[in-house]
Amino acid sequence: MQKYALFLILLLSSLTRLPAQHRAQPVDGFAAEVDGKIITVGDVIERVRPALAQLSREYKGAALAEKQSELFDDGLEKLVEQNLMIAQFNKMEAQLPASAVRERKDSIMRERFDNSEDTLMRALRKVGKTTQEWEDELREQMISQSMVQQFVRAKIHVSPREIREAYEEKKAELQQDTELKLRSISFRPAPKGGEQERLAKIQNTMRALAEGRDFAETAIEFSEGPKAEQGGDEGWINIDRLPEELKRALEDTEPGEITRLIETPVQTYIFKVEDRRGGETQTLAEAQPLLQREIEEEKYKEIYEVWMQGLYDQFQVRMFNPDISAVTGDL
């Protein structure tokens, strides 16, 4: 693990120091062998290269080394699994229709390269690949997708009973968020010596509201909050995102009602609840798409793991620790 992390750090450093025409050359150290096919360290680096750049922006030092090591291991595992799928595909003597490969290639040419061979060649030169290598990778991706479809996705079936059972089990989690349409009047803490003036302002506000004065008009006159000029209009707010002291005061306040004076360490508030929505538990029909997706994801993982274990048992897989000195020289 530490070797991989050190290797990645040294590799990234070396890539910035090499001339542009050599930066994309593959690293020849062996990372794994699957059914006689070698996966090089360079293969793994190429697979995880975009994520490596992102890691370098987000982490430094030991944390970066750990994340790079985890990324390398994950990339290697995925490449091993892809090559196991290809080994099974070849053992089955299966064939990809030539028309399917051609259509996929044409689609990529249109979407990514504007149907320009020159644009494609420039992109391939940048990453050190030939047209044949690119087409081989494309074919391997299509094989992997077709194998996953045949041996995993085609075996996933979710019955109505499973959805009903999941619904009953997760009913408490399927309650919709409660949102309140609020107006507010708020008062900032009093400056030193201004306590009596602040208290009088609050009392005048409470008196006006008790006498039935319009809340929005009262907010415009007395509120010190950022929405004062809009009559204290806060719009729709998810009650679960409010501080606990505000949530407690608003939970049982019905539309049209005004809260008591709410003291917090930051400000003092008065709210009017204009409307309320949500809070109901989703029906089975409403929750079904989410529940079906969750069940399908669980089954995908289970079926995929069993399938992959069978491939590990069926084909020879050897893992290597890359010889760092062989690829980093005196760096």
Can you offer a commentary on this structure?
With 331 residues, this protein is α+β, with helices and mostly antiparallel strands. The chain folds into two domains: 2-155 and 317-328, Porin chaperone SurA, peptide-binding domain (Triger factor/SurA peptide-binding fold); 176-277, Roll (Chitinase A, domain 3), CATH 3.10.50. 57% of the residues lie in helices and 12% in strands. It has twelve helices and seven strands. The chain has a four-stranded antiparallel sheet, sandwiched between helices. The protein is elongated and about 85 Å long. The two termini are 20 Å apart.
Topology summary:
Elements: H1 2-17, E1 30-34, E2 37-40, H2 41-58, H3 61-91, H4 98-113, H5 117-126, H6 131-151, H7 160-169, E3 179-187, H8 195-210, H9 215-222, E4 233-238, H10 244-251, E5 262-263, E6 268-277, H11 284-314, E7 317-319, H12 324-328
Antiparallel strand pairs: 1-2, 1-7, 3-4, 3-6, 5-6
Helix pairs in contact: 1-3, 2-3, 3-6, 7-11, 8-9
Quick recap:
The chain is of the alpha+beta class.
Number of helices: 12
CATH superfamily of the largest domain: Porin chaperone SurA, peptide-binding domain
Strand order of the largest sheet: 4-3-6-5
Q: Indicate the radius of gyration in whole angstroms.
A: 31 Å
Please summarize the sheet with the most strands: 4 strands, antiparallel
Instruction: Please state the overall shape, judged from the principal axes of the Cα atoms.
Output: elongated
List segments where confidence is low: pLDDT < 50 over at least 5 consecutive residues.
1-27, 323-331
